[in-house]
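Apologies for my clumsy wording, but are you able to produce some protein sequence, whichever is easiest, and the tokens describing how it folds?
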Amino acid sequence: MTDESMSAGTAEGKTQRPRGGGGRRRKPRKRSKALVITAWTAASVVVLGGAGAGFLYFKLNGNIKGVDINAALGTDRPLDVDNGSQDILVLGSDSRSGDNAKYGKDEGAARSDTAMIVHVHKGHKTASVVSIPRDTLITRPSCKSEGDRTDPGGPRQMFNTAYEVGGPACAVKTVEKMSGIRMDHYVEVDFTGFKKLINTLGGVDITTKKAIHDKDSHLDLEAGKHSLTGEQALGLVRTRHGVGDGSDLGRIQLQQAFIKALLDQVKDVGVFGNPKKLYDLANDATSAITTDSDLNDVKSLASFANGLKGIGAGDMKMVTLPIEYDPNDLNRVLPLEKADREVWDALRADKHIPKSATDQSAGDKGEAGDVVTSH
């Protein structure tokens, strides 16, 4: 895609306002992050942290890591469409350093393992979620990298290299160039935080319609009902070879199915009568995430989460960005530019994604999305 094809216009008839570098200026702190599925759980439970007081509040506040996306990107961003909706880039990385080393070799740089654009519609009762396959070939914009160097970007770059090159700011810039939509917020979660949060929740109940065995993700599940531990849940959302054709597209479907099961369960967790569990969940959630600087305190994050708590699994439409396999390399996928514009135009206008946008896509096909369901 060209830069022109990646950058879309703004919705006609909508009031627009530029958003400058608001929020506290804070130097981003590097930390190995991965697997962003936890973000919805974090958003659902961290609001409870607002009930804390004194040192508990400051403990939770100190857990949250912030990245000043506004300062990093400046004014080279799409205008914000002020129509009551919100757009959040939810991201995870495949870093293998630190506590994540057991999941693979540390090659010195992290790349985005999972990426979802979450569009919360006006009224905050429904949401549309667009997953971007990590192997999508795009025209990546220039980004600041380590040592204040500039990476020039260019055509036919894998989407997940944006994070590798320039961290959260480059990932946000790349998504904004692709979609023409300004991201209101950024949320990122790590492997260890994901597992701890699932364990504190008491596991996640799912049903698998067939056995899943994948030595790469250390997952062994027979067909039937399961209460997944944190380690098993991590294996499920990482598996590529246990279900479907072994591609990232099948893994995305598993991730989407797991999120819906997770949301169904979070609603039923009885934490209000259990102060210790309440605090443990809030502590795990705030420790697991990195956010943009507008959300990196408990009060702001609680307010944000409170606006999402009414959205359940049935209120969320999840799709994969329309793509096709690259005829020159079947391990890569290419955006379907016309269909992609339908997706981004719908979100920019705060409308639901039309079915016609994904009809011809190679994504959201096959059996993977039907293998996992909630109990």
About this structure: The chain has one domain: 29-200+278-370. The chain is about 35% helix and 25% strand.
